[in-house]
Amino acid sequence: MTNTRNLSCIASPTTTENGYKVVTEKKSPRGNRVYKLRDSAKHYTLRKQVGGRTRYFTLGSEIKQACKMADMIDAFLLFNSYEDTLAKFYPNLHQRNNTPTIDELLEKFEKSSDLLDLKKRTISDYKNGIKKLIRGGGHKTTSTCMIDWAGCYNTYRRNMMNGIEEEDEIVSKKRTINSVLRNAKSIVSEDAMPYYTHWDMSWVEELKSLKGYKKVAVHYTLPDEKLIKATHEYLENVKCNFKFTMLALALHAGMRRGEIAHCRREWFDLSGDEDNSIAIKQDRNFVPKTGHGGTTLLKSNWAQRIYARADGIDYLLPDIDRKKQNSIDDAFEPILKDLRAIGWKRQSPLHECRKLYGAFLASSDSLYKAQKCLRHTSPQITSDSYSDLIVSDTVKSLWA
Is residue 219 part of a domain? Predict the structure, then answer.
């Protein structure tokens, strides 16, 4: 039993810690409170608030050494993270007691994103992937990562496929499940793992071993001709300049959502008689998907119409906080809602309009031109995912 007579400060009988009476307590030279919950305890404890959370540090069994270690931990925490503190003072920490929660894992992943050289949208996709898998499998994001990953994945798949009967929809759901699984696995990729060395990551192999559906590769097929015509008719009649600009840039210039959100007047070259161009440029707030800029073409009359109807003085779409992905997503929601209302059931209606543009170019000109204007790194991507053949001259004329 520890002798408490030589301690400069002994806890009073009313002092408690998480409902337990503290029987031995002392202040260190730096003013840190070092205590034991009971006389029979082998080690002293330090309690600290770190990043808004209560953390406990086990100290030595001898009071002077415990106070010294408490002050060293306190000083180290001023300039270092909780995880780095554990690594320094507890290098042999028993790993079974050091498994992160899902929230802790995602927080660390996001803090490491700059070092991983990931875009904000990619980070969001990866985080949402593992959240969907966890929640769809019946768990909470506050759960420890030490869960039955195979059971979680099977539950998620059953929930996703429940009630689906149409073959096209079955294939679509399987592709969605595969995408969610890929994104979830990206959180624990080989590049990300070095940032989790302070945790027990023994559970990772089970997550990595999960397999997606086979034979669900994407091969683009055109939507119904009536839907294509309805989309063009909507564009011709929509009164909102915001919606007109978004849809026209996707349908007649094949631009991605991020490119549309960051499109500026200086990107336009309106000098051509038949075709005009839009040069998609990187700047301090925007990096194109491929990591570099590119050029797309559109009929000169449509370039002129877009340029004239856009509300913005610099950016074509004003009043968007382009530093926040949520602001960009919210800005596009009204046009997505309208496209679904006219019959689009595919997952990303605006992106489907970009695919229609690719199909038009491949059918009216060449696959090479479609690849260049869509800014794909490979013609195979264009062929598989964007360029079903438009046979009808009536449909082709919609891009005139």
Answer: no
The two structure tokens encoding residue 256: 């991605």
Condensed to tens digits (0 to 9), the pLDDT of residues 246-276 reads 999 999 999 999 999 999 999 999 998 999 9
The number of beta carbons lying within 10 Å of the beta carbon of residue 338 is 16
**Domain that residue 48 falls in:** 16-93
Number of structural domains in the chain: 3
In order, the DSSP letters of 192-217 are TGGGGTTS--TTHHHHHT----SS--
Strands 45-50 vs 53-58: parallel, antiparallel or unpaired = antiparallel
3-state class (DSSP) for residue 299: strand
Question: Residue 338 is part of a domain; what is its CATH number?
Answer: 1.10.443.10
Provide Rg for the chain, Cα atoms.
Answer: 29
CB atoms within 10 A of CB 231: 23
Residues belonging to the chain: 400
Q: In what order do the strands lie in the sheet with 53-58?
A: 24-27, 33-36, 45-50, 53-58
- What's the confidence (pLDDT) of residue 315? 96
pLDDT beyond 70 at 3: no
Q: State which H helix or E strand residue 230 sits in.
A: helix 225-237
The CB-side HSE value for 312 (13 A sphere, CA atoms) comes to 20
Q: Between the CA of residue 399 and those of 96, 115, 196, 353, 363, what are the distances in Å?
A: 62, 43, 51, 12, 12
Claim to verify: residue 274 and residue 191 sit in the same structural domain: no
State the Cα angle at 347 between 341 and 348, rounded to 5°: 80
User: b/e string for 344-355 if b means 16 or more Cβ within 10 A?
Assistant: beeeebbebbbb
What Å distances lie between residue 228 and 99, 251, 300, 360, 399, CA to CA?
A: 51, 10, 21, 11, 11
What digits encode the pLDDT tens for the residues 307-324? 999 999 999 999 999 888
Question: For residues 250 and 253, what is the distance between their CA atoms, to the nearest angstrom?
Answer: 6
Classify residue 217: in a domain, yes or no. Answer: no
- d(CA 87, CA 196) in angstroms, rounded, equals 11
Q: Is-contact 175 215, C-beta < 8 A?
A: no
User: Which helix (H) or strand (E) segment is 341 a member of?
Assistant: helix 325-341
Cβ-count burial 238-263 (b if 16+ within 10 Å, e if not) = beebbbbbbbbbbbbbbbbbbbbbbb
Residue 110: exposure state from Cβ atoms within 10 A (0-12, 13-18, ≥19): middle
